[in-house]
UniProtKB/TrEMBL annotation:
Gene Ontology biological process: negative regulation of translational initiation
GO MF term (any one): eukaryotic initiation factor 4E binding
Swiss-Prot/TrEMBL keywords: Initiation factor, Protein biosynthesis, Protein synthesis inhibitor, Translation regulation
Pfam families: eIF_4EBP
Protein name as it appears in the record: Eukaryotic translation initiation factor 4E binding protein 1
Region annotation (Disordered) ranges: 1-59
C-alpha cells in the first residue's frame, strides 16, 4: 500500500505515446513532425487514377 505514495508512481512511463487531450494538454497547433508528415502523405499530390477499382473482383 505504500507504493501509492512513491515518486515513481507519479511520473508517466517513458514510452507513453503523446495523445493530445489525454496524455498531454490540448494544443491548437499540431506538432512539427505531424505537419511535415501530412504534407508528404497528402492525397492532393497523388495522380488521380479514376480507371482503377479499389478492389479486384474474381467473377
Amino acid at each position: 500500500m505504500e507504493c501509492r505514495n512513491s515518486p515513481v508512481t507519479k511520473t508517466p512511463p517513458k514510452d507513453l505515446p503523446a495523445i493530445p487531450g489525454v496524455t498531454s494538454p490540448i494544443s491548437d497547433e499540431p506538432p512539427t513532425e505531424a505537419r511535415q508528415n501530412h504534407r508528404q502523405n497528402s492525397p492532393e499530390d497523388k495522380p488521380a487514377g479514376g480507371d482503377e477499382s479499389q478492389f479486384e473482383m474474381d467473377i
